[in-house]
Design goal:
Blueprint: E1 14-18, E2 24-30, E3 35-41, H1 61-68
Antiparallel strand pairs: 1-2, 2-3
Amino acid sequence: MQEILRLDPFSGGAFAFRSKRADRIKTFVWDRTGLVLVHKRLEGCKFVWPTIADGVMRISPAMFAALFEGLDWRLVRPEEARRPQAAG
C-alpha cells in the first residue's frame, strides 16, 4: 500500500482489494493495536465495484457496508436531512 498506492496503511482508513473474478474481497484496517485483515468470498454473486480514479476509490462507510454484504452499493442513498417544524 505504501509503495504502490503511496497511502499510509496506519491512517485509520480501510483498504479494500477485489479479486479478478470479483467474488472475493480483502480489507485491511489499522485499529491502533494491529493490522486487521478480513477476507470474504461471495457464493453465487459478485461484488459491485466502484469506479476507480487514480488507483483509489472513495466511498462512505454505509456504501462500504453494502458492498461488503454483496449488495449494489450504488443504490445506497443517505436519508435527506429535514429541518424540524417545531421544537419541543
